[in-house]
Amino acid sequence: MKKILYGTTALVAVGAFAATGAQAAEPIQVTVGGYFQAAFVFVDYDNDDGRRSRTLQREAELIFGGSTTLDNGLQVGVQVQLEAETCADQIDESFIYLAGNWGRLNIGSENSAAYLMHVASAPPSHWAFGLNSPNISLTGNFPHTSPVSLTSDAEKVTYFTPRFAGFQLGASYAPDACEEGGCGGTFSGSEFDDGSDGSVGDVIEIGVNYTGKWNEIEFAASGSYGTADDESTGDGPEEWSAGVRVGYAGFTIGAGYREFDSVIGDETTDWNVGVRYATGPWGVGIQYAAIEIDPNNGNRSDVQAVEVGGSYDLGPGVVLFGGVQYWEGDYDSASARAGTIADDETWVGFIGTMFSF
């Protein structure tokens, strides 16, 4: 479920159907791009039993993609994202697409329309290290994520309308929550399960967003909804989210919100808010995120975090970034606390760089 923003936002990437490709009626010519990011991380936590206080985090991908325009005006393309390190999901996302003045159709392993069209607060330092749905978790605490993501990169079909008067609608359908023969996402199972094992199927995720500009003020807002069937219980999970972002004179202010109701009655509320300022190669910001998990057994968990950070563009495709995070957790029981390190307080500092190519 990694976000690949290519120096912009997923919102813009979804809204733009035109892309550079080969000449009309020529075969698809595949090019290679990608990124490599690494950061030194230093952690100071109250619950430090058996835990290292420093580490080196890295993450990289090679991205293969290409497109062409047929004689009838139909644009077709392909994208494959290959992890540049050994991991369980070696191929992150892989899909084909068709596009024209009627919209765009994605087929394959890719995030849903609800996820891609979501708007939220901007990360203070770098898109992979913010508090909202980061690519790299620096603490192992409960993840903060405000976009709807019932299926992650599960195999699906997604349609995006053209943008009319600033509005765009997208819808995704996934027969199950399985990805490339293995099962990930929020719910697992195998591709041909009947649902009796607790996995879900017939997942529908819908998103809508608006982008506009008045004088020097840029505005974006989104809303999304997801639902699925659980054949073992006859009832399925539901998830919805909303977000807003406003930009003016180098400042970007945003917020995102999500609610999730599981099959067994667990409820999760997740939200974030932040502001970032950028001028020339410099950027600084602050972000706050909180998550409340209220399971049906009553063992509630609350985790909140703040990040202050910044970035500096050294040149095309090369950025330095760094920041400080503060985490605090409140748990009703030892079982709710298990697997986390935010028992009381956790401080995190990081500094790193990313090369894009």
From TrEMBL:
Domain Porin: 10-329
Subcellular localization: Cell outer membrane
Coiled-coil segments: none
One GO cellular component term: cell outer membrane
The keyword Transport appears for this protein: yes
Transport listed as a keyword: yes
InterPro entries according to UniProt: Gram-neg_bact_OMP, Gram_neg_porin_domain, Porin_dom_sf
One of the GO BP terms on file: monoatomic ion transport
Signal peptide: 1-24
GO molecular function, one term: porin activity
Topological category with respect to the lipid bilayer: Multi-pass membrane protein
Domain of life, per lineage: Bacteria
Keywords: Cell outer membrane, Ion transport, Membrane, Porin, Signal, Transmembrane, Transmembrane beta strand, Transport
Subunit annotation: Homotrimer.
Name this protein carries in UniProt: Porin domain-containing protein
UniProt organism field: Oceanibacterium hippocampi
Species classification: Bacteria, Pseudomonadati, Pseudomonadota, Alphaproteobacteria, Sneathiellales
